[in-house]
Structures are given as structure tokens and as C-alpha cells.
Amino acid sequence: MTQSLTLEPMARTLAYRLNLSAEDRAAILRLPHAVKTIERGHYMVRERARATHTCLMLSGLSVRSKVVGTGHRQIVAVHMKGDMVDLQNSLLQVADHSVEALTTSKVAMIPRDEIIRLAEERPQVGRALWLDTLVEGSISREWVANIGRRDARTRIAHLLCEFAVRLRVRGLVLDDRQYELPMTQEQIADATGMTAVHVNRTIRALESEELIHRPHPRAIQYRDWRALAEVGDFDSNYLHLHESEPSLH
Amino acid sequence: MTQSLTLEPMARTLAYRLNLSAEDRAAILRLPHAVKTIERGHYMVRERARATHTCLMLSGLSVRSKVVGTGHRQIVAVHMKGDMVDLQNSLLQVADHSVEALTTSKVAMIPRDEIIRLAEERPQVGRALWLDTLVEGSISREWVANIGRRDARTRIAHLLCEFAVRLRVRGLVLDDRQYELPMTQEQIADATGMTAVHVNRTIRALESEELIHRPHPRAIQYRDWRALAEVGDFDSNYLHLHESEPSLH
DNA sequence: CGTAGGCTTGAAAAGCGTCAATAGGAGTGG
DNA sequence: CCACTCCTATTGACGCTTTTCAAGCCTACG
Asked: Is the pLDDT of residue B1 over 60?
């Protein structure tokens, strides 16, 4: 039987921390889905809406965000290829946050019921989904600590380190230690609980310290990984990656 | 067969958002476990340690926390009766945070493998565990928004609202709209990303505005729920409770 | 070649942190 | 039963990080 490989990134994500049998992988690939292209700035999920599908990121970048009473926005997570962005919103009844595409993104929409069925029929897949949720929780806790207890310089450096590592795992960091970060400084501000102005000053300071270099405004190049990680108080433990993961030095 | 009811709070937590069959509930209650008393200030889990058990809170209060490079601490979650405090640390290989008892607490230690086995043998229980993790993630995201985008007054009020609602569900809020909050102001500071001094000033301000009253330093009484929720920019949506949950007005 | 969105920079204000000193309360030992 | 100690709460004064407001600048794109 010929089989679409569209959902391969999902299979890879789920098999990352757990062995999945060939049958389990095949069952994942067989999930019914519709591929959609979401334009930059458009929403995949709106806070308080009822979601019926789970979005798998195939390409592009998206963020989850919440809006507080003053109208200010907080980005609570950033997602990239292979991430399932709204298991939360699908399994829980009502969305507690919005999901927005930062760049034009390709996503696969998978009906919520199919995910649940798969998890029940194939416990190992269910466990992999659960694990994925646990890792997301771990990242979220690190963000709480980052925003709550680190100063601006450390906070930004930490975020840049996190992106470097997560993109590296996906093969999206170039040999010259450079990656694309298609976020505006206002979006970085929303992700770190700062203002755009202060993000600007902080990034420029990191740059003048030669901890990072920006070939263009939406790309980050680090010169000395260890130095950046030090400044960012960064330890990848919370990402729960394999120890064999190639380092960034 | 006579059966221990020690794990009843766990069964109740898991059955809260999902129907569980009598067999499922019985299987939960049958989980092997050891009840332990953890003294105030003692740790149940240490960051970077390998945990082999999951802790179910039977009484008392505990917090998860992380320590950043400067030595400052951030509390990333607070747990009470019925919460399973380290599914994370058990299922993932290495603990990414510590868990500490705020008050002398009774906990049931359940071997990690038994939890996994149960989830695999009983998909509905597995799904309930997953759901519980998803709700925790939702709370964590709200904390990110709370710390990142709300000012001190709003932030503290929001935290007090969250405790009121979560304790209310467990029947731990008295008729006179009062509950025990056995956290020192330093701990509240660690939970909100503030300093103890500023927590003190903020709480005192809320008090002088008559939004809250403190019969003693470790108890909170709210006079007008709606007013407090307004100041705290609080909407319980993110807790994913039943709509039929009795209100706090 | 003009416009819009994002970047950059300056100046001033504000919120929150730091330092420091005092007070209160619970537990302990004499 | 009192003195002592430790921990927490409280308050003042001061300073610094970050925000706010505002203005220009750059660059991509129509």
C-alpha cells in the first residue's frame, strides 16, 4: 500500500523519545488529514473557540499567545516543523489561547477524534503523545522561570539559545552557526515579557559584545556557543533531548 | 475484595473531566503505593535527579521550583490535594525541576512503571492522565502570561483568585470566603517573579483597598469576588473546570 | 518613488528592586 | 515563666532596570 509521507514529521517527533513499531508509525502516517497553507499573521485557533482539529506544523513558524486585560499580548510558546500545536485545544473543550502563523506555514489538520482513537488503539502512540505534552510542559515551566527571574540580557540570550537548539535538532541551523529567526522585535518582546524598545537595546548590546551577529535583521549567528549559553544561563536539560544530540559548539 | 481508598483523590482528579468506568476507578485504587509524610521544607524530587515514583498529594501544599544562575528561585507551580506532582519527572528521564513541601504533606508514592502499565492497559485512564497533563500545561501558560504581562497588583490578585478557585473545587474555601494560604511572602514572590518586599507592599495595598482581608498572615478572605477577579484580570477558563462548578460570588 | 512596517535611538518617568532597620510571633531552653 | 532566637512581616529611603513617549530611519514592496 502506497502511503503519504505528509505526516512524517509527526511520526519523527513521536518516535523521538520512545520506540515506535513499524505498525505504529504506519498508523500515524495513515491518519486522515488536510494540508493547509496559513498566511503570515493569520490565526489557526482563536482563544475561546472550540477546536475540532489538531494542527501539525509542516513548515514555517507559529506562536501561541494570550491577551491580557490591558490589551498586551504574551506569547507563551513558539512552534516549528514537527510540532503539534493544539492537542491542548482539541482535547480540552475550549481553547485557552490563540495560535497564529508567524510566517506562511504549511500545516496538516487532523481531526481530533482520529487522534484520540489512535491513542486508544495504540497505547504506545498514546504514550508518545502524552510524552510530547509533558515536554511542552517542561518548556513552559522554563519560560516561567526565564520571564520571572532573569534580567533582560539573560532572558533574550536564553531565548536565542533555545531556538538554536530546537532548530538544530531539525537541521535548521547552518554550518556557520546561523539560523533564521522570522520574529519581529515586537514579537520577541511578547515572548519575553519585555517591550520592543528594550528588546532592541538588549539585542544591540549582545551584538556589540560580539555574542551574536545579525547578517540581516531576521537572522541570528552566534560566534561562541559556550559564551552565549553562559550569558543566557542556558542548560538544554529542560528540552529533554537525547544526549547524543550533536552539540552546537 | 476490600480496597484501600487512599488513592481516592487521584481517582477523583482523573474522573473529573472524563467518565471513568467502575473498573477503571477500581484499577486506579488498586495501584501499589506507599504513603509518606513529607515535612515542611523537605524535597520530594530534586532537579536533575532520576525519579522512579509519581507523588500524589493527599494533604498539604507543595511547589515545583527552578533555580536560575543568579541563585534566585522561581516557583513554577503550586500543588494541592489530588494533584499528581511528578508525572513529568517520572516519565521523562531526568527531573527538570524540584518539588518541595510547603506544609507538612501526606503523599502517596506510586511506582512509575505501574502508572505506565495502567495507562496502557486502560486507554481511558491513559487519556485521563494525558488530559491532566494538558490542564497543567494550560495553567503554566497562564502563569507565563501573568508574570510576563501583568503588573504587580494584577499579578498578585490573579494568583489569589486562582488559589480561591482551585481550593473551592476541593471544598477548602470556607463559607465566609476565606482560605488558608500557607505561603510566606517570599514564596509568593518566587511564584510571581517579584521580590518579597514588593509582595508585601502589594498585598497591603490590596488590603487597604478592601479587596482582601487577612484574618491572620496566612489566610486570605475576599469580600467581593467580582471586584477581586476584575482587578486580577481573572477568568477561570484556563483551569478547564466544569461550568456547573459552584461560583465564588 | 512613495508608503508602511519594522528598526533604532534619546530623554524622561515609573515601577520595582535593593539595602537596611524594626517589629511581631512561635518555638526552645533554662 | 521568662529570655532568647529565628523566621517572617513591615516600612522607609534610595537607586536602577525597564517602560513610555516620541522622533527619525531604513528597507521591502507595490
From this structure: no
A68 and chain B: CB distance < 8 Å anywhere?
yes
- Which CATH architecture describes the domain B8-136? Sandwich (2.60)
A138-174: pLDDT as tens digits: 999 999 999 999 999 999 999 999 999 999 999 999 8
Give the model confidence (pLDDT) of B134-143 as tens digits. Answer: 999 999 999 9
Q: State the CB neighbour count (10 A cutoff) for residue A248.
A: 17
Q: Which pLDDT score is estimated for A2? A: 52
Sort out which chain A residues have CB atoms less than 8 A from B70's CB and list them: 149-150, 233
Whether the per-residue pLDDT at B230 is higher than 80: the answer is: yes
Q: Given B69, B92, B149, which is nearest A193 (Cβ)?
A: B149
**CA quadruple B48, B50, B52, B54: dihedral, nearest 10:** 10
Mean pLDDT over B192-205 rounds to: 98
Give ranges for CATH 2.60.120.10 in chain B.
8-136
The answer to whether A241 touches A138, Cβ cutoff 8 Å, is no
Q: What is the pLDDT of residues A178-189, one digit of tens each?
A: 999 999 999 999
Please name the member of B88, B138, B193 whose beta carbon is closest to the beta carbon of A134.
B88
Mean pLDDT of chain B: 93
Q: Are A138 and B133 in contact (CB under 8 A)?
A: no
Taking the CB of residue B120, how many other CB atoms lie within 10 A of it?
A: 15
Contact B138 A70 (CB under 8 A): no
**A124 has a chain B CB within 8 A of its CB:** yes
Residue A75: how many other CB atoms lie within 10 Å: 25
According to DSSP H, which parts of A56-194 are helical? 87-91, 112-121, 123-149, 152-169, 185-192
CA dist B121 → A126, B22, B27 (Å): 11, 15, 10
Residue B126: list chain A partners with CB under 8 A: 119-120, 123, 126-127, 130
Backbone φ and ψ for A185, nearest 5 degrees, come out as -65, -25
Delimiting residues of CATH 1.10.10.10 domain(s) in chain B: 150-239
- Yes or no: is domain B150-239 CATH 1.10.357.10? no
Check if B93 contacts A (Cβ < 8 Å).
Answer: yes
